[in-house]
Amino acid sequence: MATRVWLTALLLAFLLAASTFTARVARADSEEDAAAAEVVEGADLGIVGDDTQVSSDGPLSPASGVETVVVFPKNAGKIVPAGEETELLVGLQNDGESTLNVVAVHSTLHLPFDHRMYGQNLTVQNFFNASVPVSVQATFPYKFVVSKFLQPGAYDLVGYIVYEIDQHPYQNVFYNGTVEVVEAGGLLSVESVFLITLGIALLGLFGLWAYGQVQQFSKKTKKAPKVELGTGTTDANIDEWLEGTSFVQRSKSKKKQT
Asked: pLDDT tens digits, residue range 240-254?
């Protein structure tokens, strides 16, 4: 009985975790779809080489009232396959006092323990005719490719969006966090890993339940009383069954005669 209660509780815990995970994935997908729907249309793109630098006389600072956010579409784990194209969406909110013109988006890859050590300078993506008026939100796609020769592991990705206001350049850091670089072709989605793990756990629970059933059946078989059949026992049962019949009376009369 205790085994059944424990198995039931564990199964309910796994089902609850699965439902929570599914809800989170669905909510994340809906947010990503909403962000993708706001991508700026009519903004011409220009892709420059990985080693091209955005021109400036010194470090650029962000403009007042300009905020950024980033979304990795259908990639909640921020997995980056080496040698393959990875896409993210850069959201920009202009709460300043003037229209801004987006110039470019670029990023760099660093070793996580020291940002002074570059792993790779990634693609610089130029934008032409990409203006964002005051009090307007806009989303810009950015695609980059990590070198296929890069050692798999955790790296820090730093992404920048460069824009101009009244011909003065500014720059916002839209992302500064960890990404996981993996070998191409060896990628497993978070959903697949979770479903595989859940399937293994359910198989384990079923195995424990079956083992408990076998053990209970064995105990019942051992406790069953043994029925011994013998001549004396059989005759007694027959005598009780024939008690009061003519057969018994005839038998008694014969015994008296003898």
From this structure: 555 656 555 565 555
> Structurally, what CATH architecture does the domain formed by 66-183 represent?
Sandwich (2.60)
Number of H helices and number of E strands within the chain? Answer: 4, 11
The C-alpha atoms of residue 247 and residue 240 are separated, in whole angstroms, by 12
Predicted local confidence at residue 216, as pLDDT:
79
Within 10 A of 81 (CB to CB), how many other CB atoms are there? Answer: 19
The single-letter DSSP state of residue 155 is E
pTM of the model: 0.54
pLDDT digits (tens, 9 = 90+) for 11-45: 555 555 555 444 444 444 444 444 443 444 434 44
Phi, then psi, of 81 in degrees rounded to 5? -75, 130
Strands 66-71 and 124-128: unpaired
Torsion angle defined by CA atoms of residues 185, 27, 78 and 45, in that order, rounded to the nearest 10 degrees: 90
Task: Answer for the pair 94, 108: CB distance below 8 angstroms, yes or no.
Answer: no
CA distance 212 to 206: 10
For the chain, which residues make up each domain, given as ranges? 66-183, 186-216
